Amino acid sequence: MSFLTHLECSYTGKKYEAGKPHNLSEAGKPLLARYDLDAIKGAITKEELSKRTEGFWRYREFLPVAEPENRVSLGEVVTPLIPLKKMARKEGHTGELIVKDEGRLPTGSFKARGLCLAVSMAKEFGLKHLAMPTNGNAGAALAAYASAADMRTTVFCPDDTPRVNIEEIAFQGADVYTVNGLITDCGKIVGEGKEKVGWFDVSTLKEPYRIEGKKTMGLELAEQFGWELPDAIFYPTGGGTGLIGMAKAFDELEAIGWIGSKRPKLIVVQASGCAPIVKAWEEGVEHAPLWENATTAAAGIRVPAAVGDFLILRAVRETNGFAIAVDEKDIFDSWREVARDEGFLLCPEGAATYAAYRQALKTGQIAKSDKVVLFNCATGLKYPMASDSQTIDRTKPIDYDQF
C-alpha cells in the first residue's frame, strides 16, 4: 500500500489526483507528493526501520509506490558518511567535516535516487517511453532503471557532455542525441516532443517523483545522525531537486515526531560561471532569471535556469542558509587536494562543496565548531583527471635513484 494521498501545486496549493501521471501543475510549477503522515506515524517506528536492509526502499512508507512489484531496484545502498579529518584540521575546524558519498549508488551518482522513483512510478502507471534532457548522470540513471523496467528511453545531452556519460547512457539502452546547446535547449526538445512523439517527460521537477527519490537523502541523514540533524549541508545545485527533497523530508519527519524543529543551514553551491540561484539569493528575489552564457566544467551544476528556483530559495531562507559561488580554479584545486590529502576522490561538483565550505569558514558564514556535511554527488571516476604519471622503459637499466 501507499500512504500517498494527493499531489499539490508547490506555488498555488491546488490539489491533483495522485493515481495518474502528471507533469507540471496548471500554473507551470512543480507538483509535490503529499502523504497521510498520521497513518505513517502509526505504521512504522524508528526501531522497526533500523532492522531493514533494502537501501533507500527501507523508507517505503514515505514513498509513493503502492505495489511492491513496481519497485525497480539495481541494488541501492544507504550511502556512507566519510569524515575528512585531515582537511578539517588543515582549516582549523574543530567540529566535524563529513562527506555523504552518493557515488556508491547504482550508476555512480545521486541521480539514481530520483530516477529510480520516477521509473518505478512510470511502471506503476504503465508508461512505456520516457525522455529527458541531461548533463550526464541523470541520463545514465534513467537509462539503467528504464532498461531494468523494460521501458524505452530517449535522452538529449549538450554536445560538450563528458564522453563517458554519453557512452554510459547509450550502453545502458537509451537512444542518445547530442545537441549544440545547453541543458535548457535539450529540455525544449523534450517538451516539444511530448505531443509529437508521445514520450513522457521526466525532466528535473517536471514530474513529481524524482523529488521523492532525492528526499531519501534527508531521511538517511537524519537516521545516520541518530535523528539529530547536522548544523550545515553544502549541496551542489543545478536543478536543486535534492535540496528541495531534503527540506521536504525534514518537514515530514518533524510532522511524525521523529525529529524536532532544528534544521541544518541548507547551502546552495554553484560555479561562478553559472550561478543563477546565488544571484537571486543575493538580490533577495524569489525567482532566478536565465543565466546567460553558462559555463563550468562541473557539468552537473551547469543549469542556467531551474523550474524549482523559488522552492530552492525558500528552503535556503527558511533554514537561515545561504547561496555561494566558487571559481573554477578553486573547484579543481579542491578536487586534487582532497584526493591527495585524504585519498578521497570527489567528483568536480562535490569538490565545489569543499571549496565553498572553505570559503564560508573564512567569512564566518559557518562556525569552526559546526557539524558540516558536504554532498559528493557522483563518483570521481567518471571525470577526466590530469595525469602526473611518468614513463619507465623496462628495456633499459632502471635508475633507482630517481624514486
What does this structure look like?
There is one protein chain. With 403 residues, the chain is of the alpha/beta class. The protein has 13 helices and 13 strands. The strands form three sheets. Strands 4-5-13-10-11-12 form a six-stranded mixed beta sheet, with helices on both faces. Helix 5 links the parallel strand 6 and strand 7. Helix 4 packs across helix 8. The longest helix has 16 residues. The termini are far apart. The mean pLDDT is 96.
Summarize the structure.
This protein is of the alpha/beta class and 403 residues long. Helices cover 37% and strands 15% of the residues.
Strands, helices and their partners?
Layout: E1 4-9, E2 15-16, E3 31-35, H1 37-43, H2 46-50, E4 81-83, H3 85-90, E5 97-101, H4 111-125, E6 129-133, H5 137-148, E7 152-158, H6 163-171, E8 175-179, H7 183-197, E9 200-201, H8 209-224, E10 232-236, H9 241-255, E11 265-271, H10 276-283, H11 309-318, E12 322-326, H12 328-342, H13 348-363, E13 372-376
Parallel strand pairs: 5-13, 6-7, 6-9, 7-8, 10-11, 10-13, 11-12
Antiparallel strand pairs: 1-2, 1-3, 4-5
Distance, first to last CA: 63 Å
Q: What share of residues is helical?
A: 25-40%
Strand content: 15-25%
Enumerate the spans where pLDDT stays under 50 for 5 or more consecutive residues.
none
Mean pLDDT: 96
Number of helices: 13
Largest sheet: 6 strands, mixed
Overall radius of gyration: 21 Å
For the biggest β-sheet, the strand order reads: 4-5-13-10-11-12
